[in-house]
Amino acid sequence: MDNNKQPQSPQPTPSVIQPPVEKEGTNMVMWFIIGLVVVGIVVFGIYGYLGKQQTSSQSAPQGSNQPATTSENFDKDLNSIDVQASDSSDFTSVDQDIKDL
Question: Is residue 8 packed enough to be buried (19+ CB in 10 Å), middle (13-18) or exposed (0-12)?
Fold first, then answer.
C-alpha cells in the first residue's frame, strides 16, 4: 500500500440558507387582527366624535324665548335690508344681448 495517499475527506456541500417558510394561515390571521384594530379605532373615533357633539349641543343655552323662524320672518328680514341702488348702466350690453336672443 501506498503511504503517501492521504485519506480523502468528504467534500463539504455548499449550504444554502433558505428563509423560513411562513404558513399562509398565520399571515391571514395577522391581517385579520390588523383589520379588527383599524375597525375598532374607526368605531371608537366616531363614537367619541358624536358624543362630543351631543355634550356641546346640550351645554349650549336653549333659545326658548326666540320665536320659531318661519318664512314670514325671513321675508321681514329681507325687506328690512336697505340695498343701495347701483348704476344699472353696467348691464345695458348684457340686457341688449338677452333681448337679441
Answer: exposed
pLDDT tens-digit map of 33-75? 999 999 999 999 999 999 888 877 766 555 555 556 677 888 8
Nearest-CA neighbor of 34 among 42, 46, 23? 42
Which pTM value belongs to this model?
0.35
Predicted pLDDT of residue 46: 93
CA dist., res. 75 & res. 7, Å (int):
113
71 vs 24 pLDDT, higher one: 71
- Secondary structure of 23-87 in HEC code, one letter for each residue: CHHHHHHHHHHHHHHHHHHHHHHHHHHHHHHHHHHHHCCCCCCCCCCCHHHHHHHHHHCCCCCCC
Distance CA 41, CA 47 (A): 10
